[in-house]
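Re: the multi-chain job from yesterday

Posting the exact lines I submitted so nobody has to dig through the queue logs.
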Amino acid sequence: MTGPALVRVRGLTKRYGDRTAVDGVDLDVHAGEIVGLLGANGAGKTTTVECIQGLRRPDSGSLEVLGLDPSLDGDRVRRMVGSQQQDSALPDRMRVGEAIALFRGRRSVPVEGLLEAFGLAAARNTSFAALSGGQRQRLFLVLALLNRPRLVILDELTQGLDPAARRDVWEAISVLRDAGTTVLLVTHYMDEAEALCDRVLVMRSGQVLDSGTPGELVLRHADRSSIRFAALDEELIAGLRLLPGVDSVGALDGTVEVRGDRASVAYVCAELTRGPVPTDLRIDMPDLEAAMVSLLSRPTDIDTVIATDGVVPTLTGGAR
Amino acid sequence: MSTQHTPTTQTTETARATPPPDDTARPLLGSVLMLVRSELRLVLREPLVLAFVFAFPIVTVLVIAGSFDADDEAFGGVDPSQWYVASYLAVVIAAIGLVMVPVHLAAYRERGVLRRFAAAGFPRWSFALAQLVMGVLITLVASAVLLAVAAPVYGLPPVTTPLTVVVAVVAGALAFTAIGLLIGSLVPNARAAQGLGMLAFFPSFLLGGGGPPPAAMSETMRTLSDLMPLTHVTDAIREPWLGTGTGLALLAVVVAVRVVALAVCARSVRL
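And the result, structure tokens for all chains:
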């Protein structure tokens, strides 16, 4: 269930010299949603969010953020949007409490509770340089939320963090989700988008290739699964071939491999319970990462087809 | 949590037509004052600043003001120790404008701190204005410390026209902070700013008031000294202090050039 559109971008284009960084992007973010902007480095994600914040002036296209045009009302948009920018730090000697005092606006939320919620209550007098990577990112989250933003933009929030610290930050973002905060999350980590986002847009070379829920993207672009286990009797293998959704059943060196769509896994597993269940059962289900790899590795001429008529072509491996 | 939104479709259209009242405005003056407060604290924790702006002028003035005989003719009849004490406020100004401000600004640009200020809705110009205010404030504080240390050793020369001296100190501090902002916005990173700053600082220091008196210089060095902006700041402070002239005319030229420089750099770089 989503609310009104807080961000509405149509045909956004931004060039740096003769390089087109963003090329006709459409993007909506509705109230209460966590939307992910995915893509490899240099896909145009950061430029897109910088245009949304009015930090860059688009070459063409229309933008409406919280009812305002960020190119005209940039200062005002930025005060209503909480943001974490990529590669943007604080001065080393600035302490947590000082950063909050500096960035706190007139209608900020009670700071104590915010620091408590993000596990920084004990770090008030710690300088930025002395914070761990995870603490720094959590501080950026606190600063982004400080002034009751109507929209939060997080650009590569977990870049360079170790896995534990990333989980930590994800936990913090889940807090936002539960509070109904609207978030536009820029990332190139698929697991992050899968864990946090209601909806994702995949960008390459400045264009949006596809969008939908993580589940929809996986279905569209990484539909195949595979199951492997030690060989059983011939009769069972023949039976597996007939199950719905199964494409192929192969046997090699005593290992059987069943390939099929995602739903076929359920049928195959059910079938396996009819005999002695194999102890080495191994199931590979594609995730968003697989969908992205498949989506992003498609040759560019197919992209043009999608861009013009919206048809998603069947994937043919090794087309490059 | 307080960031909650109520997704009511009813507000959709109205929200689009009329944006919510702007109760989050950051007025320019308030922003500048907040930045000054925060920046002052940070800068005074910076070892480079403490060394160059506070310690260096004090150590060197204590050495050089005692290095000449009291009747040395190169000082035009003025006691050399008085001559130097009255000159060294300009060294403080040079250290701020050529070392402190460029390194500080370049470090902020390098680390994306300025983008963070912009994204937080700090008005354009607020950072540059805060630096100018800070340049003047630190000049005043460091000058007071310098004079407090020099006083018991050499005594303070009586100030002939105090108002003119204050105007010269403030104008000189503004001019050199502006040049510092220009250097800091052109160099690629903090290290380059430090290198370039030192390269600009030491010749200015030696030829522009902190080194030998112009009368003791060779013809070539005296010509170079006349070309140093710092020389005119030094003269504009020392002459009305010791009652040997006003020196404000050339300072006006220096300030004018710097204001233009600042405007140019503010246009080319997002300050």
